[in-house]
Amino acid sequence: MRWWDSEVGYEVYLRSFADGNGDGVGDFPGLAAKLDYLAWLGVGIVWITPFYPSPMRDFGYDVADYVGVDPLFGTLDDFDACIAEAHRLGLRVLIDLVPNHTSDQHRWFHASRSDPDGSMRGYYHWRDPAVGGGPPNNWVSHFGGPAWSYDEGSQQYYLHLFLPEQPDLNWSNPDLVREFDGVLEFWLDREVDGFRVDVAQGLVKNMLMPDNPQRFPVTPEMSPRQVFGCYEHRYDLDQAGNTAIYRRWRAIAERYGAMLLGEVYLRDNNPNLVSRYVSKQDGLHRAFYFAPMHTPWEPSAMWSTFRDALDAAPRDFSWALSSHDDPRAPTRLGGGELGRARALAYSVLLFALPGLPFLYQGDELGLEEADVPPEQRQDPVGSRNQNPADGRDGCRTPMPWAPGPAGGFTHGAEPWLPIARSDDETVAVQRGDPGSILHKYRELLAVRRALGDLHACELEWLTDRSAPVIGFRRGDCVCALNAADAPADLALPPGQWRMAFSSERPAGAVFESAMTIDAPEGVLLARIPRSLG
Ligand code: NOJ
To answer: In 426-487, where do the E strands start and end?
Structure first.
């Protein structure tokens, strides 16, 4: 067992977690002061989104210096203090590594752009215009428009799979590969416990830069995401060379006992492709598998998603229902009480699967997508888009800590995004109410921790594709989720089974041979040992 095998992770979107200095943006002092809340909640790993010096065009995913802290978030000393406090509380910390691209304000890019003959030119992808003019190939940016921008000075194009202000690094360049080893070591020496690797599927490109095959015609009303999906990303994503980089990083991480967790976002969520990043046990330790965010609330689709995922990677995926990039789960799952009930029930299943589950900040409060008025929206994905609803602001509004206009998030300036929450959604109110959703999540985490078989035993399916209930067994534990519209029965393995956790009712009842599960409801059952004698 490795230290992460029995843990639940928690994503901290740093800008929106807690503001210590009153400038309206979350920071390290703010986070450090709230870590005891995360320890109380019962998570074991905290993933912190990027905090490096950055012009913030993509809110920190445009890094201008890999080995520093942006003053907006504090100082390197604040960072060290935060890590020390986390460790004091028994929490491990993963930081976000953004290796696919830098900011266009990174000194590497300045050097690369200003000196076409210099040694740094090859840190990025520069190409001549196509014959007849225009971008060198048909690749498109995730965030809209071509993946190439023209540089007047050198009359060449540079590649960016995201914003033009996020030029892609050239991972076929051995100097860059070596230089990056030092970035990992810098943070590992500062005692981080590992990295979440941004765009882990994207680092290496096919250096011949052929056109990607087009699958569907592009039409003007399509969102960037839809346009991106019109192409088969045969040459810009998921290239075989990625795994060599992770093998190299794995060797570094192992020296420190650290973990590597990849964001492997591949279209169509093909688990066999994602599993290649983790299955040989010599690359990434875990990879986020995003299908649960995109699978409809429908038992056979959900069952197939998990069966296929676990066939491809029996214990190496990471699971999440929400993130700073996607609409929050309760909204996606129907909204209101129903959406919240489904999200909690679904979490029961994700937390009982083999792998490493994550909560996104506010999941434990049952937060839905926030309504951010157009004039307060910030995300470039929204503003570069025909349909501003494509932006990610609704899942990024600040954590509501306590009632009041600034939600206990900041004591000073206006928060960078509106708080947009009711008093009942705050940590303070929910913490004081034993019947709140926050207490349900906390109880779920405690029960999960206590049921050792959920970390140690193989999964055995109890149901199949045609059943309304998704059920499986791990040793002396059973997990079941009713994802249909009406109560349904689950046949239980032999023995007596005690309700250890239910998303809908108190624990304690004992069942034998079968039980009826509400809709929606997620349950964890523990087998009662047969009395001796
Ligand atoms: C994935 C990150 O989660 C997202 O927020 C970011 O915009 C892109 N990668 C680009 O770094």
So the answer is: 459-461, 469-474, 477-482
Fold observed for domain 107-159: Oligo-1,6-glucosidase; domain 2 (3.90.400)
State CA 343 to chain mean position distance: 16
Catalytic residue (choose from 58, 62, 168, 198): 198
User: Residue 2 class from Cβ within 10 Å (0-12 exposed, 13-18 middle, 19+ buried)?
Assistant: exposed
Pairing of strands 92-97, 194-197: parallel
CB hemisphere CA count around 199 (13 angstroms): 21
User: Is 462 close to ligand 1, i.e. is its CB under 6 Å away?
Assistant: no
Indicate whether residue 57 lines ligand 1 (CB < 6 A).
Answer: no
CATH of domain 9-99+174-204+239-445: 3.20.20.80
Residue with structure tokens 């460790």? Answer: 87
Q: Write down the pTM of the prediction.
A: 0.98
Superfamily of domain 458-532: Golgi alpha-mannosidase II (2.60.40.1180)
Work out the angle at residue 160's Cα, subtended by the Cα atoms of residues 224 and 127, and round it to the nearest 5 degrees: 125
Residue nearest to atom 6 of ligand 1 (CA): 61
The stretches in the chain having pLDDT less than 50 are none
Rg (CA), the chain: 23
Concatenated DSSP letters of 129-176: PPTTSS-SS--B-TTSSBSEEEETTTTEEEE-SS-TTSPBB-TT-HHH
Confidence (pLDDT) at 381: 86
Mutate to test the pocket of ligand 1, among 58, 266, 392 (most ligand atoms within 8 A of CB): 58
User: Is the Cβ–Cβ distance between 168 and 125 less than 8 Å?
Assistant: yes
CB 276 within 8 A of CB 243: yes
User: How many distinct helices (H) and strands (E) make up the chain?
Assistant: 15, 17
Catalytic hit among 62, 263, 390, 425: 263
Which residue's CA is the closest to the ligand 1 atom numbered 2?
A: 198
pLDDT of 337 reads 98
Residue ranges of domains in the chain:
9-99+174-204+239-445, 107-159, 458-532
* Residue 381 near ligand 1, beta carbon < 6 Å: no
Runs of H (alpha helix) within 264-332: 271-275, 291-294, 299-312, 329-332
pLDDT value for 532? 58
